[in-house]
Amino acid sequence: MNKQLIFIMTDTTRKDMLGCYNPDMHTPNLDALAEEGLKFENTYSCQPVCGPARSAIFTGQFPHSNGMYTNSIAMGDNVKTVGQRLTDNGIHCGYIGKYHLDGADYFGLGRCPEGWDPEYWYDMRTYLEELTDEQRMASRKPESSYEDWMTEDFTYAHRCTDRAVKFLEKNKETDFFLTISYDEPHGPCLCPAPFNRMYEGYSFDYNPNYDDDLTQKPLYQQLWSGEDMEKPGSELNKPSSGLALFLGCNSFVDYEIGRVMEIINQNYPDALVIFTSDHGEMLGNHKLQMKNAACYKEIANVPLIIRGGEAGKTITSPASHIDLVPTILDYMGVPLPKVLEGKSMLPQIYDAEQEINDVVFTEFTRYEVDHDGFGGVQMMRAATSEKYKLVVHLLDSDEFYDLVNDPYETINLIDSPDYEAVRNALHDRMLQQMNETRDPFRGYQWAVRPWRKDKEPSWENDRHTRQRENEEYEPRQLDYDTGLPMEKATRLKETNDVKA
């Protein structure tokens, strides 16, 4: 039997924007997928901003490892995507939709990267080049959604779906990995009727974090909030044309996903189907908009649905985008490279009682290299378990939440003596992960926090040398002291001498 995997993702879909997580939402096709597969409640983005999030999704390495720690910076030349790895193992790979990994502007370079079939390549620049100048400008205006000329076939989502359907119709007898990467519902949220007005008058249910005054939170969050700091939660959580169009576009992309699922259900009933989104959107929660260096659920806790194993179950243990590439390779029968920083989820997909992670990690370094704003550099590392969340801001104050008793993340317990043991244990896990993944920004400053009295600054940090093992594509690295191939990639330093 052929191995066939369809990976579907959207841009900026909060978990509570799917009906299977929030019954107010109209997403019947993704809801059906959840009923037939596994729904994950606690999946976290590796970095809640477009490019870095996608870099982890498609390489299996954290942004700090693959080099794309902000938008508009390309990954390292020696970093391989899952498409490259599968293609080199005889698996046909198609990528249709937003890419955001080539270091270009928002729309991309319009060139198919290594590892993907050029016949199906269709990034956002490719789409824009099909349009006249007037159509391009109209495609970037939300108000175009209300024009009489706005039809389904004008949208990027529809054209991506058309190409996905062609791929599925032509590759029935092959092993393949197909990615369908929608830009929707990301702004400008283009969608035709009836979706453009489907959510008029709607607002999310009120919860206490709309009135989070941020006085116990990092300073940068107060700066990020700006004028919203002074607004009551009732004003931040009210119906608006912007929210209505955003949610309408979300339902529209579900409709387009439904066109793909119709073909999959007919021709590929045994295929593995994965759906997720790169990150969410604050939408006024915690008096914040968009996304940035935070690990709040609204932006970091993303939807994840997987069909192809157990059906109709909900997974509450932590999950992470870092595990998607190992899962895809494992499903395709490709050995997992040492350079990957996650684990295969296949055991859990086939047996929902299996736990893959007890803690998952999220980071942030910078939002957008092309812009002076968005706070500039904001160094954040976070560790999340099913019950607790620790967020360390290198240049600011830190956060700790009891997710069971404070699900809306309003009470910062970073200095609470009642949580010292569990907080410190989660902190130790975070430091360990930074070291083991060779985080280039690691150092004693992450360990020596005002609330961590037992930590002392150390020049040697963890006193290990950690070299890269990417031996499917590179020769084994050499030991600095011998010039010979390293015997162990990770080894304790034998001397404190500084060598030139």
Automatic annotation (TrEMBL):
One of its GO terms (cellular component) is cytoplasm. Residues 456-479, 488-500 have a biased composition (Basic and acidic residues). Residues 456-500 are annotated as: Disordered. InterPro entries: Alkaline_phosphatase_core_sf (IPR017850), Sulfatase_CS (IPR024607), Sulfatase_N (IPR000917). Keywords: Hydrolase, Metal-binding. One of its GO terms (molecular function) is metal ion binding. Residues 5-334 form the Sulfatase N-terminal domain. PROSITE patterns: SULFATASE_1. Belongs to the sulfatase family. This is Sulfatase N-terminal domain-containing protein. It comes from Enterococcus florum.
